[in-house]
Amino acid sequence: MSVPLLGLETEYGIIREDLENSDPVEESMKLLKACERKSVFCKWAYSKENSHLDMRGFRVASLAQDEEEDAFCAEDRKRPYSYLDMKCDRVLTNGARFYNDHTHPEYSTPECRSVLSLVAHDVAGERIVAECVAIRNRELEGNSLQVFKNNTDYSGHSYGTHDNYLIPREIPFENVVSGLAPFLVTRQLYAGAGKVGSENPGAGNFQGLQLAQRSDFIETLLSIETMTKRPLINTRDEPHAVSNRYRRLHLILGDANMSAYATALKVGTTLLVFNLIASEDKLAGLELVDPVADVLKVSLDKATVLQRKTGGTITALEIQEAYLEAAEKAFAGKDLEWNWILKEWKRTLDELRHSPEKLSDRIDWAIKEKLFTEFMQSEGMGWEDPWLKSLDLEYHNLDPDRGLYRGLQQEGAVYSLLNEKEIVRAVELPPEGTRAQIRGQAVAQDAENIKSIHWTGVEFANGEILDLTGVICPEEVEIFLNSREQLV
């Protein structure tokens, strides 16, 4: 089994530094309106959304996000905009969706078939968002609008970076949970973006650098919710595909990585683990007694000892090594990209065990650890100094003149996974062999005649409908394109 489609959704932090109380809704709207790229604007088909079905076999009557949406709507009635005006949805020629998720601009990549394609489209999203920030700041005649690719504002708010995997529905959901949970608890060893201090009361008076930002906010093992009681595994059953064939695993616990390498490793290893689960590989002894509590424990101390359900203890690194060993046995030599993932996964875990300082050119938390430690030594300060939280935010700033990661890129101090040609292509064009190719071509060729648009289809003003619900695999895309020569 191979996961046929992958995707990433990133909510960006946004602030106007020249205003004492900037309105993130207004600022996100104005950022979206600043976008000059060809797109379909304010035509997203919200009637196609259905977030209330649960993978455990039931439908929930309401979600916390519904209550928040109602609260927003009550407040938004005071604004001179319609709901669609405020959402400011754009669907771009590369097949991506860029919109206002009320208090955050959100960029959702097009559906991709490979890990490196997905990473290129994630970085393309950074480019497009940063481009809009620059345009908006020219309108403001300054540099007051700042946007961050991170997951916390250090004021108790967390916003998400969600990785998505379309998997066969025939895989029993209980197998997904048991096989995936220990992996997700420990994936932060290389996927964590790093965070100075903690906002979780359970962390006590923690002073130092956590592995991950979202680990402060994970509260339960399974839940359909995304804004409260945030789960290790989200149970929303909204596949955006033929529902009796597929599930979409919508994982909300991940961090926003500035390092494209870390993004590739995060998504790539998760992809291989899904394939292990599908092949019913037995990963004996890895299930944890309290995986929810262990998320924060590992983030605060990567060497912490975890309790296994079968008795005894295990470390986060040992769990990752067990998954790697199983993946090497099952998949080595079967796919060039998988070979790269296996090689880099092994390299990273080996360096974590023997020489973790070597990670400081490509793993976000390790880059921060080196950068901040050197800064503290030069300034004679400790982890408790609030200046470090400001630096933590600036690491994720998209501004090329202010962002700390951007500065390291310009100095050649961090590993460059992608070349400029790959990024520029992803900014302009959709991934081939996916339904995003059809969506992107429709936008590029006939945007002005599109009445509504969604992941699963496009409706034109003349009543013509392109139903993409069942168009998943490259063969299905080719058949669809061949039958609709006007889109080619």
Give an overview of the whole structure.
The structure is a single chain. The protein is an alpha+beta fold and 488 residues long. It has 2 domains: 6-354 and 414-428, Creatine Kinase, Chain A, domain 2; 435-487, no CATH class. 41% of the residues lie in helices and 16% in strands. It contains 16 helices and 20 strands. The strands form 7 sheets. The chain has a 7-stranded antiparallel beta sheet. A 3-stranded antiparallel beta sheet has the order 18-19-20, covered by helices on one side. α1 crosses α4 (115-140), α5 (173-186) packs antiparallel against α7 and α9 packs antiparallel against α10 (336-354). The longest helix is centred in the first third of the chain and has 26 residues, at 115-140. It is globular and about 65 Å long. The two termini are 30 Å apart. The model has no long low-confidence stretch (mean pLDDT 94).
